[in-house]
């Protein structure tokens, strides 16, 4: 039996971004002893990078706003594939979550009359994003951290121990959710610094690990985004929903190469920035799709007037949902009208005075000045699409955030699927984290309380298997030699295309680079059937090779080892994305097929679910060369009639299937 540190908690939250921290606060406030685990230092989660703001229909800047308008915008943005109940709860509860943050100490930018200021963003009918300059995520995390410290101080006064009811385990990575039968029994992980293994036993686990962007070469995402929570859920037996939907943000930096992909916030366009091609044209006017025609300006003059008089003019098409803008930029570059480094121009310098740019977009000003030596108050930025967000995720119950099929497992934040349908609107993630982080924390605490003393025990055999799996990269060389001698192992059956791979240990960094290139080139912003088939073959080859990913040295802070372990997750998630993208023969939101370029109403009510082919999720999973994922279709739950009634019939006709319209 492997000797590991063990502790018992009521609720374990994996991830300390906005979703994880909000879940932990809620669970602790409802009486659950709660542990939070994160890969990086406490306070350094991806949420910190969020720039533009938190979408919430508070109606501070335009009195016309309310939750129904927000719900409508969210469904339009997601092309009606959103899990509608989530979109409803999100729109209704987001304002409360923002006000709550303020009572916990968040300092938002203000309107002239002292209310929380709200800014315009793509796809939102009214100014809706509560913000702190372009550093909103930092303030959100700071506030939640402060709240956690306040709760710990409260606990200290009562118990003499700050960490008696709420403890943060930083720089620790979870590699397995443990189960007893169908039920969650805890998590297995390692400390990144020492390499020591640990088990936290708990009847309820909340996954809030964020996204998957590091599977793609050009991405705005940080190093933490290796799809861990998605993979942990899959391996625990929970399905992933609609993984084909990956958001490519239209405006990432394109130059210099070392910073390619870093985000240029949508606030730049929300505050008046415009997109131009190499011929100086504001090309977005040529790319307004039929479903949005009535809502967007027809001329530059009308679009410009909208910033000052939104009630009598329509918004400029630079503020279309992200999928539309990203496709348009891609098309302009392809047509030879791109900027020198393969993007297009985004200009604020001719649109507002230098001091306004510096005040409203301070991070962008410094980002371009320091990283690209471009002064955005005097010249245009070069921008192009970058992999930014995954709409697909763990299939959850809308009200409770419970993962499907695994009692005791919950998911919130970017790792959860459904809320954003096929495309997320900017600002809707930070509000999603708060709304569903809170719900996940609440229901996890209730689940734990409901277990009484009869909690699922941790199975020692699972701990042994998880430890062996984690240690495998250290013995890759020996294993490869054994396979070489016996002729056994990878490559002996079902050879992936390209011939038998070498049996030498593989370098995890090389594998990661090949994976990123594959996903970028073959399952990127514009997809084609033969390329996705090619991607699946390449992924099979990489999976076989990844089993021989080997590292040298020891377990004390060893980044090569960490990456070797992360590869399992990125490969699993990438296979889900590629399989689902191949299956969905239409274009919708963050899934664009060159060979099926129209959005098909017949696909409107179809969800694609990915699950492990080996439902036990055993460490010795299925033969890697054959693929590990099975894909099934399911019909979505019909949208409740009173919510459908919020839309004009003419609009619904563009989206819903014949049967849905008839009903
Ligand atoms: P995160 O904040 O990423 O937290 C994930 C946590 O999980 C981290 O603590 C990480 O260490 C931990 N973790 C991961 N794997 C493991 C593991 N195996 N074991 C233990 N811990 C693990 N959205 C908006 O709504 N508005 C914006 O203005 C906005 N701006 C953005 C700007 C940028 C540059 C980017 C990249 C994104 C932006 N987004 C924005 C999107 C938004 O920031 C993210 O979707 C959101 O922060 C995700 O939060 P989360 O809590 O789900 O995950």
UniProtKB/TrEMBL annotation:
<keyword id="KW-0285">Flavoprotein</keyword>
<dbReference type="InterPro" id="IPR036188">
    <property type="entry name" value="FAD/NAD-bd_sf"/>
</dbReference>
<dbReference type="InterPro" id="IPR037099">
    <property type="entry name" value="Fum_R/Succ_DH_flav-like_C_sf"/>
</dbReference>
<feature type="coiled-coil region">
    <location>
        <begin position="525"/>
        <end position="552"/>
    </location>
</feature>
<keyword id="KW-0175">Coiled coil</keyword>
<dbReference type="Pfam" id="PF02910">
    <property type="entry name" value="Succ_DH_flav_C"/>
</dbReference>
<dbReference type="InterPro" id="IPR030664">
    <property type="entry name" value="SdhA/FrdA/AprA"/>
</dbReference>
<keyword id="KW-0560">Oxidoreductase</keyword>
<protein>
    <submittedName>
        <fullName>Fumarate reductase/succinate dehydrogenase flavoprotein subunit</fullName>
    </submittedName>
</protein>
<dbReference type="InterPro" id="IPR003953">
    <property type="entry name" value="FAD-dep_OxRdtase_2_FAD-bd"/>
</dbReference>
<feature type="domain" description="FAD-dependent oxidoreductase 2 FAD-binding">
    <location>
        <begin position="10"/>
        <end position="430"/>
    </location>
</feature>
<dbReference type="InterPro" id="IPR027477">
    <property type="entry name" value="Succ_DH/fumarate_Rdtase_cat_sf"/>
</dbReference>
<dbReference type="Pfam" id="PF00890">
    <property type="entry name" value="FAD_binding_2"/>
</dbReference>
<dbReference type="InterPro" id="IPR015939">
    <property type="entry name" value="Fum_Rdtase/Succ_DH_flav-like_C"/>
</dbReference>
<feature type="region of interest" description="Disordered">
    <location>
        <begin position="472"/>
        <end position="508"/>
    </location>
</feature>
<feature type="domain" description="Fumarate reductase/succinate dehydrogenase flavoprotein-like C-terminal">
    <location>
        <begin position="512"/>
        <end position="609"/>
    </location>
</feature>
